[in-house]
Structures are given as C-alpha cells and as structure tokens.
Amino acid sequence: MNVTPETAAVWDALKTIPDPEFGLNIVDMGLIYSVENQDGNIAVTMTLTTENCPSGEWIYEGVKTALNALPEARNVEVTMTFDPHWTPDMLSEDGKRQLGM
Amino acid sequence: MPEPGSHPSPAAAPRPASKQSWLAAQGRLPLAFMGLALIWLLVATTLLVAHPGLLGMPHAAPPVIALTHSWMLGFFVTVACGAVYQLVPVALTTTLWKENLGWWHFWLHAVGVPGMVFFFQSYQLKWVALFATAVILGVLLFTVNTWVTVGRSTRRDVVAWAIILAAGWLCLAVLAGLFLALNRLFTWVPVAPLALLRMHAHLGLIGFFLALLQGVAFQLIPMFTMGEVRDWGPAKAGLWFSQAGLVALVPALIWQWAVLTYLGAVAVTIGLVFSGYGLQQSLTTRKKRKLDPGIAVFLRGGIGIYAAALAGIALTLPDSTRSTAVGGFNPMIYALLGILGGLMPCIAGMMCKVVPFLTWMRVYGPLVGRRPTPPAHSLTHPRLEYWGLGLQQFAVLPLLVGAWWSSQLWLHLGAWLLAVGVVLFLADMVGVMKHLWLPATAPAPGPALKPKLTASQTK
User: Fold this and answer.
1) CATH 3.30.300.130 holds for A8-86
2) Which residues of B114-129 are buried (b: 16+ CB within 10 A; e: fewer)?
3) Binary contact (A66, B92; C-beta < 8 A)
4) Which residues in chain A land under pLDDT 50?
5) pLDDT tens digits, residue range B142-184?
6) Are A17 and B373 in contact (CB under 8 A)?
7) Is the pLDDT reported for residue B191 higher than 70?
8) B439 to chain A nearest CA, in Å?
9) What ipTM describes this predicted complex?
10) Which residues of B touch A63 (CB under 8 A)?
11) Residue ranges of the domains in chain A?
12) Chain B residue closest to A48 (CA)?
C-alpha cells in the first residue's frame, strides 16, 4: 500500500468503508489492491473476501459513493477483481492485531 | 490482476441478476423466516414451561407430538428454511430462482404450522392433515426453489449436495408425516403408527437438519473464522456415510428390522465422526483465533449430536427400551440430546451470526460510504447472547435428569432454565431486529474504521 500526497485522501476515504462481518475497514482487510489519483481522476482496484461475499454489493457501491464525495474527485473508477484471490495474509498488521492473529 | 483503472466485468462485480434476486439478497425473505421462527421459539418455550411434564410422557402422546411440532416445524425448520434462502445463493455464487415462491412458502408455513400444533393438542387428525397440506405445499415450493437455484450453479461439491439432499429429505419428511396422519384415519397400509412416526422423525432430523449441517458448516465455519478446507475427503465421507445410514434406517424403522436399524445408526455415527474430523481440520487452519460466541456454541452443538448418535445406537440394541416406556433410558432421552442438546445450539448459535448480518444488510448496507456504519456483530448484546445461549445449553442437563427419573421437579427446573435462556436470547435477537425500524443514528466508527493515514505515511 503506497500512500502519496495525491492518494492520501483516497486512502482515508476508503478507511471509512467497513467489512461488516469482521468489523475492520476494507483497507486493513487488504481488499484494496491499488489506488491512483491523477488530478482528480481516481482509479481503485479492489477485491472482496470471496466472490460470493453477500455484502459485496454494498461495499462496492460504498467505495464509489465515498470517493465521489471527495472534493477533488472528477472521475471515479472502481475495478473489482478476484485475481489474485484475497487471503487473510493480505490483512494489514493493524488488522491482524485487531483480529487476534 | 488487471491493470488499475479497467472497468469491472459483469461477472466480477457481485450483482444480482434481477430485481427479485436483488431483494432476496438484501435479506427480506430470510429475515421474515427468522422473525417467524423467533415467535415460534417463544410459543414452543411457553408450551414447555406450561407443561414440562410432557417430557416424562410417552413420546407418541398427542400433546407431546404437538409440543414437538411447535419446536421442530415452528422454530427449527423455519430458521433453517430462512437460512437456506439466504445462504444457498451466497454459498453457490448464484441467485435465488424465484423469491415470490419463497414468499408463498412463508405464508403457507405461517398458516399451516399453527393449525397443525393446535389440532395435534386435541388429536383431530383430519384438521391436522388439512393444515399439514399447507405446510407440505410450502415445503414443495421450497424444495423446487432450492433445487433450481442449485441447478443454476456450477458448484457440485459437498456443500451443494448437502443442500440438494436436505431439501429432498425435508419434502419426504413432511409427506411421510401427512401419510402417517392419513394412515391413522383410513389405515391404507398395515404398519405400526409408532414405526412410521420414527421414520418420519428421522427423515427430518437426519435427512434435513443433519445433512444441512454436514454441508453448510464447511462453508460457514471457514468463512467466519478465516480458515479453509484443505481436504474435502472427510466432509464427503461424513455426508455420504450419514446418507447411507439414513437410507438403511428408513425401511428398517418402518418394518422394525433390528439389525439394519443398528447398521444404519452406526453408519450415521461414522458419518458424524468424519464430518467432525473434517471440521476440526478446518478449524486448525483458521486465522481468526478467537471464536465468536455464536460459532463456539454452534460447535458445542456437535457434542449433543454425538451424544444423541450414541444414544440412538444404544436404543437399537436388543436389551434396550425401544418402546414408549417412560423413565429410564428411553427415546425421550435420545430426542432431548439430539434436539435441545445438539440442534438447538447449532441453530441458535448460527442465528447469532446470521440475523445481525441480515439486519445490517438491510439497514446499514445502503448507508456504506455515506456515513459511518456499525459492524454487524455490534448489533448484538454480548451478555444477553452469552447468558441466553449458555442457559439454553445448561437446561438440557436437568431436563435429561427429569426425563430419566420421571421427576417433575427436575423437568420444571430444566424448563424454567431453558425459558430464561430463551427469553435472553429473544431479547438479544429483538434488539438486533429493532434496527430494522429504529436504525442507530450516525453511529460512531469503531477504532478499526477511523482514518489513520496521513500523506507522509507509507507502508
């Protein structure tokens, strides 16, 4: 996870999106694969814990909503991918600590 | 991984295919079943507290049958069907075939079961059969809906087969129940009613509930504990041994073939051992070390199921009391172990995970990204959950003692302990479902959700 001055606000916004099952935000869950921000053109590539994640639709829509609400956002693209598949190893250190791992 | 910035493919984005499946995915139908089940839990517990002595009576006595149906059809089947409507599309990465069929099932079930329980009390079998027909129609819709839903998925592993088989066995179980009632009225087939009753009960318990647990547990436990199933062999063996055992038990119980009954019971138990081993292996891979209370209680239900399986084998032995005798080691002990000792913690434990999640989906899912939302587990009240589930489990001991010794005192004690546990559990579930009408206003984000990054931070 690389945070640059351009992407910091995007990462912060993503950190407000929860995974309802585990109670962690989706950044600490390791669900965000990449973030780009070029002059307000924001591109996020993300995944879900499983392809059939029942809350996946809300998380996906929530990411788009939160990013579109950013003052600098001009165009937001959110790409969902399952390659590679998410594994618990992708949890952040903070996330692992909170889950007692 | 695709290049950042590429568009999501329709297959990748987890979006339901139609408006109907979209609504189902939001949990309205499963939540309706859960709500109905909670009402039945209150009714069934009230019946037990009002008449705890029923557990000291022969299990074929009409009021005992009424009580049993209030628990089994009213509570357990209702929860399980609601869970299937939610979990099957999720587990099989598909969408529910027809949500409106699910609603027809709901209303037929909601009308049919109270009528059955009421007329079982006075043993008016014609009326029982009439209301049972409504229940059967609902179950037929459930089975068709489930089968088509599974058929639309490409998954054909233990989880899928367990769901297919469970839906089929439930259908047979309710049809067998109707046949049993009609055969009492018209005597079409000269078979002992008690033998048919046992076959009917085992179709439901082993065919529906056990098959469902033996499959769905391998989907849910790894999902909730961040574990995995590395070897599906034990899960497969578990399901198929138990299925083989049930296939043997059905004719053996009807025609009272002692040896085949014994072999069937042993096969079911071997299946349970395989399933338990497979689940234990999966648990060793879990990344989330601390188990949620609901999951822990779900797993403890396995103890009751094992105890019931051993009691079942013992009941097939030649010198055991397989009659309707009261007191001592009798079928009531077996039923208490299996239903209240095994099924109850499995179902109630899973409800502690499923109901908050479904509620979260409906209430807070649409708010994600717009305002802070609480995690699903925070909708429950931990102390109510702990004491509710704990007392329910603890109550099984005095009930067993009371049924064994034919002691009204112990039966009353057990019934009241169970009732307190149920009330606490209901308070917890009502507190969760209250969010459907009274959502928390702008809940504060937990520590995990507070933004912490700054522009200078880099990992």
Assistant:
1) yes
2) bbbbebbeeeebebbb
3) no
4) none
5) 999 999 999 998 888 999 999 999 999 999 999 999 999 999 9
6) no
7) yes
8) 15
9) 0.90
10) 369
11) 8-86
12) B14
End-to-end CA separation in angstroms for chain A: 20
Tell me if chain A has a CB within 8 Å of the CB of B290: yes
Chain B interface includes A8 (CB < 8 A): yes
CB contact (8 A) between residue B25 and residue A22: no
- Residues of chain B above pLDDT 70, percent: 89
| Chain B residue with the nearest C-alpha to that of A76 | B5
- Look at A100 and B12 and tell me if their CB atoms are within 8 Å: no
Alpha-carbon gap, residue B229 to B323, rounded angstroms: 42
* Average pLDDT of chain B, as a whole number: 89
- Give residue B323's identity as a one-letter amino acid code: S
Contact B86, B28 (CB under 8 A): no
Q: Which residues of B touch A37 (CB under 8 A)?
A: none
Of all residues in chain B, the percent with pLDDT exceeding 90 is 74
Contact B5 A77 (CB under 8 A): yes
Q: Using CA atoms, how far apart are residues B301 and B311, in angstroms rounded to an integer? A: 15
Put simply, the answer to whether B14 touches A65 (Cβ < 8 Å) is: no
Based on DSSP, count helices (H) and strands (E) in chain B, helices before strands: 17, 0
Asked if B459 lies within 8 A of A20 by C-beta distance, the reply is no
Q: What is the pLDDT of residue A52?
A: 76
Which residues on neighbouring strands pair with residue B351, listed in sequence order?
none
Q: What HEC string does B405-436 produce?
A: HCCHHHHHHHHHHHHHHHHHHHHHHHHHHHHH
